[in-house]
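Before the break, one more example. Copy the sequence into your notebook; we will annotate it together after we see the structure.
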Amino acid sequence: MSDLEVLAVVPARGGSRSIPRKNIKPFAGHPLMAYSIAAGLQSNSVTRVIASTDDEEIAEVARNYGAEVPFLRPAELAQDHTTDLPVFQHALDWLRREEEYVPAIVVQLRPTSPIRPLDCVDRAVEILMDHAEADSVRGVVPSGQNPYKMWVIQESGSITPLINGGPPEAYNRPRQELPPTYWQTGHVDAIRAGTITDQASMTGGAILPLVLDARYAIDIDTLEDWKRGEQLVQQAQLDMVRPGQAPRPLPDIVELLVLDFDGVLTDDRVWVNARGEESVAAHRGDGYGLGQLRRAGLEIIVISREENEVVAARCKKLGIPALQGIRDKAAALKGVLERGNIDSRRAVYVGNDVNDLPCFPLVGCAVAVSDAHPQVLAAADMRLSLPGGHGAVRELCDQLLGRVREKERND
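Here is what the structure looks like once it is written out:
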């Protein structure tokens, strides 16, 4: 990225009506505005993140999550009908006057669009920097309904098309013949500062799109929106910006792979016969992948809360040591690392349930299978696309083997 000053602004007034105090209301474990602050802080292109608010409590929350609050916004710029432009004009004028700070690009990060792709902000800034003719970049998604088929009811009672241009009688044409249309979202706006200060506009006339995946498109305006948004975050099926530590990638060099058993090497189900004997189903592909990793020199161990013959039998067949009946997995993991003199940053842990969570901070990368508990999915650095017992471990093995082979080629 360039050395240009890129200022991210999170506008968060205190008087929201539809959901009172929504900007600091806990949303999937963090205040709503924390997700927008994180988007700015975790961006490679943003050089400064501030919150513009009229409310001291909101200001304190913003500071706690890493944003600056250099001023409190005047009350007259925090009304129900206040538009974005005067809020941003005030921020830029204050920073210029009080700090002699003049950014080249301003990024608007609305709190009400908390579910953002990881590269959302950087892509918007990059598009703007690559197109000197553009005044701004706006996040959009393909529209769910085509406006060429929308109507306005007139005072006379008749209806007229919302859009008069385009193909003749577009409203009578098949959807496939209509121009594609897009809906603006609140994920990100990247704007040249001069567009705001000189043109008195939040977009200018030359606007470029950042087309985003529609799955991320949610605007928090009602309690129903809130519930739906929290479910998306908790299900953790989308790679998104989250407050706190940024997700850690797989280590370049992996020395140790630690696996839970139930729910990772199995699908977490168990069959019990009339004699009380248990059996489980395992994925042969997982076993093959683990064998490949062992032959490549990686240490692998299973740490299981359960103590069962089936665990011992499966691990014996795989040639993997297993610690069973472990109530404190974190303590057991620390012991494995110390005894093996293994750098924890070169260890990877794969889990599926809440008793795996204490192990996550102890390794270089924490991995969850796709059907893991929501808390585990939210805490994991990496989420596999397959569920436990259905090839998830093989999926990870293939990625680790790829790194081993790439290192061998480079050496």
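DSSP finds eleven helices and 18 strands in the chain. The two ends are 30 Å apart (CA to CA). Try to locate both features in your own notes.
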